[in-house]
């Protein structure tokens, strides 16, 4: 598991970067004199370029030395973060977020697919859970720390901390991650068959709509809480969300290995995630309990990814890396669209409660697709 931990540390940097920006929106907004909905597009552009780059680079670099690709992608990601910290204009900041998203889109699916190469078949679920768990740890530890640093000093200091983490990750992979055999690149017709496989389409469709709801809503957590809870301090809610993500992403690996019925497990996760989002406006009125929906939301949102990727690996055993990359891409595409729609909602001043409505509608579509998949293909 040592090699899996090295990959998980790289994912930690990605999780820190992808989710801390949502907490830095007020500071970035003040620096560049932009509205919250405009600055929210910095999240959208990161996730959009992640979505575009993941499947493209997965195919382009299929069969190439994965260790070198992981190191170069983390280097690109780290340089982009340094540009974000130095950006003299908002346009350059958006450009740097696009480059960072490209580096993340290259690193993440390869790291997830590579993690299964270092363990036996019966431990693949745990390896996937641990690697993805690196992102949730980046959220639960990095995001509150980054927001604290931003409040005490400046949001740019948080970005420099990210740069330092990226450099450490690069050095650790260079010196300690072994070279390992790569899977030969699949033939073009095999890749096309994967995209035309109805099972794959429905599986990533579930991922898409769940991501629109979960990650899109998360982007605007700060204005949501200011409106509903009359609180500008989002740190404790982010702690609850991130800690839930940590618990969910680590425990899900064991559930995959021992529960077995992956589609049933995903269905339970989707229902629980929907209920947690619905309960937010009601639970905010109760001390202590107001953090519970955010904990459950984080746990279910993060737990959903590993079984989905496991299902895709079983559906496309000869295109595992490409299938995982596609799911990661769709996950972040959903986040980009969710963040963009959230920005539209805020800009037309329909009230932040509308963000909850959009999230519930999107989750309903995810559940509908999941039921169709279970009925149509008759597998666990």
Automatic annotation (TrEMBL):
<dbReference type="InterPro" id="IPR050189">
    <property type="entry name" value="MFS_Efflux_Transporters"/>
</dbReference>
<dbReference type="InterPro" id="IPR020846">
    <property type="entry name" value="MFS_dom"/>
</dbReference>
<feature type="transmembrane region" description="Helical">
    <location>
        <begin position="354"/>
        <end position="372"/>
    </location>
</feature>
<protein>
    <submittedName>
        <fullName>MFS transporter</fullName>
    </submittedName>
</protein>
<dbReference type="InterPro" id="IPR011701">
    <property type="entry name" value="MFS"/>
</dbReference>
<keyword id="KW-0812">Transmembrane</keyword>
<feature type="transmembrane region" description="Helical">
    <location>
        <begin position="127"/>
        <end position="151"/>
    </location>
</feature>
<keyword id="KW-0472">Membrane</keyword>
<dbReference type="Pfam" id="PF07690">
    <property type="entry name" value="MFS_1"/>
</dbReference>
<dbReference type="InterPro" id="IPR036259">
    <property type="entry name" value="MFS_trans_sf"/>
</dbReference>
<feature type="domain" description="Major facilitator superfamily (MFS) profile">
    <location>
        <begin position="3"/>
        <end position="376"/>
    </location>
</feature>
<feature type="transmembrane region" description="Helical">
    <location>
        <begin position="268"/>
        <end position="288"/>
    </location>
</feature>
<keyword id="KW-1133">Transmembrane helix</keyword>
<feature type="transmembrane region" description="Helical">
    <location>
        <begin position="200"/>
        <end position="221"/>
    </location>
</feature>
<feature type="transmembrane region" description="Helical">
    <location>
        <begin position="157"/>
        <end position="177"/>
    </location>
</feature>
<feature type="transmembrane region" description="Helical">
    <location>
        <begin position="236"/>
        <end position="256"/>
    </location>
</feature>
<feature type="transmembrane region" description="Helical">
    <location>
        <begin position="38"/>
        <end position="57"/>
    </location>
</feature>
<keyword id="KW-1003">Cell membrane</keyword>
<keyword id="KW-0813">Transport</keyword>
<feature type="transmembrane region" description="Helical">
    <location>
        <begin position="69"/>
        <end position="88"/>
    </location>
</feature>
<feature type="transmembrane region" description="Helical">
    <location>
        <begin position="94"/>
        <end position="115"/>
    </location>
</feature>
């Amino acid at each position: 598991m040592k090699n899996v931990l090295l990959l998980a540390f790289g994912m930690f940097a990605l999780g820190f970067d992808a989710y801390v920006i949502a907490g830095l929106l007020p500071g970035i907004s003040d620096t560049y004199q932009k509205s919250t909905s405009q600055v929210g597009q910095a999240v959208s552009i990161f996730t959009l370029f992640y979505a575009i780059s993941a499947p493209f680079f997965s195919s382009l670099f299929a069969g190439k030395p994965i260790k070198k690709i992981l190191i170069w992608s983390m280097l690109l990601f780290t340089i982009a973060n340094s540009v974000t910290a130095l950006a003299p204009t908002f346009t350059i900041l958006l450009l740097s977020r696009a480059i960072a998203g490209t580096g993340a889109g290259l690193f993440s699916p390869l790291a997830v697919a590579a993690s299964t190469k270092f363990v036996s078949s019966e431990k693949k679920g745990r390896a996937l859970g641990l690697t993805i768990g690196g992102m949730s740890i980046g959220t639960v530890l990095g995001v509150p720390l980054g927001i604290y640093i931003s409040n005490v000093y400046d949001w740019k200091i948080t970005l420099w901390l990210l740069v330092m983490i990226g450099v450490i990750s690069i050095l650790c992979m260079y010196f300690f991650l072994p070279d390992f055999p790569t899977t030969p690149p699949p033939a073009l017709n095999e890749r096309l068959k994967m995209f035309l496989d109805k099972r794959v389409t429905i599986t990533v469709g579930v991922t898409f709509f769940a991501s629109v709801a979960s990650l899109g809503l998360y982007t605007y957590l700060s204005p949501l809480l200011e409106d509903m809870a009359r609180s500008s301090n989002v740190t404790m809610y982010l702690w609850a969300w991130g800690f839930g993500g940590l618990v969910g992403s680590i425990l899900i690996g064991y559930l995959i290995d021992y529960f077995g019925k992956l589609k049933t497990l995903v269905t339970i996760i989707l229902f629980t995630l929907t209920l947690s989002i619905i309960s937010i406006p009601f639970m905010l009125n109760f001390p202590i309990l107001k953090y519970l929906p955010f904990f459950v939301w984080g746990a279910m949102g993060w737990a959903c990814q590993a079984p989905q990727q496991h299902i895709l690996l079983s559906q496309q055993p000869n295109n595992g890396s490409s299938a995982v990359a596609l799911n990661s891409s769709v996950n972040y595409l959903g986040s980009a669209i969710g963040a963009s729609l959230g920005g539209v909602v805020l800009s037309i001043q329909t009230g932040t409660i509308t963000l909850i409505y959009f999230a519930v509608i999107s989750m309903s579509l995810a559940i509908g697709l999941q039921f169709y998949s279970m009925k149509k293909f008759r597998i666990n």
